[in-house]
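Running co-folding for 1,6-di-O-phosphono-beta-D-fructofuranose.
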Amino acid sequence: MFELSPLQRERLGFKPEILPELIDLLTADFEDAIQPKQENKKSEEIKLHFPHLTHLADIILKKNELKKVAPLRVGVVLSGGQAAGGHNVISGLFDALSELNNESTLFGFLGGPLGIIKNSYCELTRDSLELFRNQGGFDLLGSGRDKIETQEQFASSLQCVQTLKLDGLVIIGGDDSNTNACHLAEFFLQHSCHTKVVGVPKTIDGDLQSDIIEIPFGFDTACKVYSETIGNIARDALSAKKYYYFIKLMGRSASHITLECALQVRPNLALIGEEIFEKKMTLAQVVAEISDLVAERAKQGKNYGVILIPEGIIEFLVDIRALISELNSLLLSDGLHSKKLNEMKTKAEKLAHIESLLHAQAKLTFTLCPEEIQLQLIQDRDPHGNVQVAKIETERLLQSLVEEELKKRKALGTYTGKFSAQPIFCGYEARCALPSNFDANYCYNLGRLAALLIARKKTGYMAAVTNLAKPVHSWRACGASLVQMMHCEERSGKVKVVLKKALVDLAGSPFHKFSQKRQGWRLDDSYSQSGPIQFFGPSEVVDAPPQTLLLKSYVL
Ligand code: FBP
């Protein structure tokens, strides 16, 4: 058993603030939100997949007369990547179920969605939760990236919830897990199963958003942890004045994390994948943009700086995107070329073989990449044969290409500075941090709301808390209809009905603010050091929500 640090023990005693509508659960009920009927706007494909759910509108809370609740049996699962606050969702869920009826039972599925398929679970009690309140990590239950997708998996899940006689199943996850939640809710209804399915929005990436899902949990803590690191590194750059720090930030596709950290720290340059995509920029153009910055700063005698690179950038660069797509179709996991490549002994043989197969443009892009990146592009593939973009060391790729470019400029006499760089990856260290007050409060309320949705027999909803830029006493609780968030998307050549990933909105106020400020950040060293997450002190320090939220709500 792990030993808790003094701070962890102190955090066990933190009492999350409950939003007013969720204090007295027995008198709380839901009604349809006043909104234009969405039903007709949904495509035929979506209606076909979700005949029972297609009519569901978002719901809001209303006060009602006291409604007693029979003992509830609920299962909960953590799905996908870790995000700070998961244990608080479960604590909130547990406490709320006990308040609704103290004979209720909460089961936790082990190791992610596979736990549902394989019927692997444990019963959660007040004692088992005791050491997990306000703590980071997902280790109470573990997590996994398995999806409930096939008919057999749906059937096993149905059997599992029926065997356990579950009134509700709470799926804590990102866009894919909540897509599965919607499909499961529909499947259970089609099979006259009374288990209600409720999703909870989680992902540090911040890309699970809609009109009423303002931000998924975990984003705030992760960005605060990264901003602390970046702020410290920036101060190091300013002190030693000898390095450029190329900092890659986690976030599989969208650049929300990079944007938030840029707003918090004010680096000299922050690349935003969505903007690069909109401008149809190539790798060479991005390299030129960074080199221009280095050259401009060198003219002022500044041979140091901080550059933020979102993990997902690789797929937003038009030429790399085309290369990856060509490589993906060439190297299908069961394909001929993949087998051939595996049989080859030397790196050089493998690279030459791939080069010989690529079309002219893709070949040019491939040869532009240093050898170690070329190998990452062809070797690190997922079980479907796709490039694992998260494993490509973009920070090293850009650093080495900028170095090359600067050498050329030096030879031409257009650059006279010194360039020495350090690649840094800010990734896994932030996912299991002790949740910030924002995430601890948010998650606890999400858990309570999920319990209430189940008690009021709502299925196919995601727990949603709005007004998050305001203090907790102004937060509102609602249910977001999952089906209203669905859209059709082509994945691996097939049309699939999935929850839409929310990318950075280039017309939105957070990006607008960033683009107004960034010119000044290039040459002035206006770095801001946010410091570690604080749990004690004035509210503006300990309870601050992400800047992105404040800007979206026009609070800043
Ligand atoms: P989720 O969307 O599942 O929460 O995962 C987010 C994330 O942390 C990404 O930022 C990152 O690209 C990925 O998970 C890493 O995944 P893994 O843990 O499988 O290496």
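Result summary
The longest helix spans residues 219-240.
DSSP finds 22 helices and 15 strands in the chain.
Job closed.
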